[in-house]
Amino acid sequence: MTKRILLYAALAVGAFVSVFPYLLVLLTAFKTQAQLTSTAPWLPGWPPTGRNVADMLAGDFPRFVLNTAVMTALLTAGQLVFTTFAAYAFARLRFRGRDVLFWLFVATMMVPSAVTMIPLFLIMRELDLVNTWWGLLAPYVLGTPYGIFLMRQFFKGLPAGLEEAARIDGAGPLTILLRVMLPLCRPALGTLAIITVISSWNSFLWPLIITSGDDTKVITVAIATLKDGIGVDYHLMMAGSLIALVPMVAVFVFFQKYIVRSVVLTGLK
Length: 269
What we know:
- The chain crosses the membrane at residues 7-30, 64-88, 100-124, 136-155, 234-255.
- The structure is a single chain.
- By secondary structure, this protein is mainly alpha-helical.
- It folds into two domains: 1-49, no CATH class; 50-268, Orthogonal Bundle (MetI-like fold).
- Helix content is 74%, strand content 0%.
- The protein has 14 helices and no strands.
- Helix 4 runs antiparallel to helix 11 (186-201).
- The chain is globular.
- It starts with a helix and ends with a helix.
- The relative contact order is 0.13.
């Protein structure tokens, strides 16, 4: 009984630490500027106000939400398509230098993303893609080392007899991938899609570097621009953060079964 009490106490503390930042976002989003200084951060302001959220929705912020949704959808679609093809080639097709090329590609996962930001920006500048959708999407839409590694390991875990039976029936590599392998890869594809959606929606550093206009500005950059040289509009920043948080909460509510499955799958692989 003592061990159970200690276990649940530790879980309760961990849950509180995890949820508390979101509680602060919710409470601060419905406070006025005066209530920010007159009440403790963890206490609600009274009476609560919805003006902060209304002000954010009345401006250009919905446009930035749409930009983020478009970017997330395109990156997720590109990841699923190109990552699947690359992973299948590394897992099942035989060609010279396959394993060496794969491990060299995977080794780039050990390089911090901040290290590659300046070279990527210089490449995009030479291609005249700065502040364009092409420049925003190009570095990640064709797949990532992590996604290719995850899908390759899943492909290698599938029975080889399925492919051999399909070849006997006259199927080629593309037919085998589309009609035999992909239906079996739904758990892995769901995992990759969830990871890509979350990482794309929360992406900040690359959009901050490559974009400068409102046509390509995303949520994270828009929220960061609320901080200027004079001060920080915390109530507006929290209102924007609350708006940005709602889609992710909806994703969790409707796809929590797949999110838990993705955690299990990534842990096993």
